[in-house]
Write a structure and sequence with these properties.
Layout (H helix, E strand, L loop, with lengths): L3 H17 L4 H8 L3 H13 L3 E4 L3 E4 L1 H23 L4 H11 L5 H15 L6 H12 L6
Antiparallel strand pairs: 1-2
Length: 145
């Protein structure tokens, strides 16, 4: 089982390789607000566990095992962030909170949150109750009263 810290590293490596085409120690350090020696230590551990391939001076790539795990983590993060933003949490806070929650919630919970987000986003019309909720968040009063 990976620690939440190790999962954060896999997610950061995935995001960097999707954005830049590669991930380096200093890029990961910036993304996670960590010191490069700490990043190197964790990347070496992830390499030993078979999640990444680390070649000094060449960068870091995810193995298939690493890609699979990183995509699961990223999907959990994106799902939770989408849900939090849907309930009127500002994006910067939703992103930070999703990062904390993604490691703690059961897969069934995440699945149902994703189903809820997808259900709301694919509704033919914007659900009226969602607009009512946004007004309630601003005023503290139910708009139907």
């Amino acid at each position: 089982m990976l620690s939440s810290k190790a999962e954060d590293y896999l997610e950061a490596i995935l995001n960097l390789t999707e954005d830049k085409g590669y991930a380096r120690i200093k890029d990961i350090a910036v993304a996670l607000n960590r010191r490069p020696p700490s990043v190197t230590e964790m990347v070496k551990r992830l390499d030993e566990m078979g999640y990444v391939v680390y070649r000094k001076y060449e960068g870091i790539t995810l193995t298939e095992k690493g890609k699979e795990r990183a995509h699961v983590i990223k999907d959990r993060h994106d799902t939770l962030k989408d849900f939090l933003m849907m309930i009127n949490v500002p994006e910067n806070i939703a992103d930070k909170d999703a990062c904390t929650m993604e490691h703690e919630l059961d897969a069934t919970t995440i699945k149902n949150v994703r189903n809820f987000v997808d259900f709301v986003n694919t509704a033919p019309d914007s659900p009226q109750w969602l607009e009512h909720f946004k007004k309630f968040c601003k005023t503290g009063k139910h708009p139907c009263q």
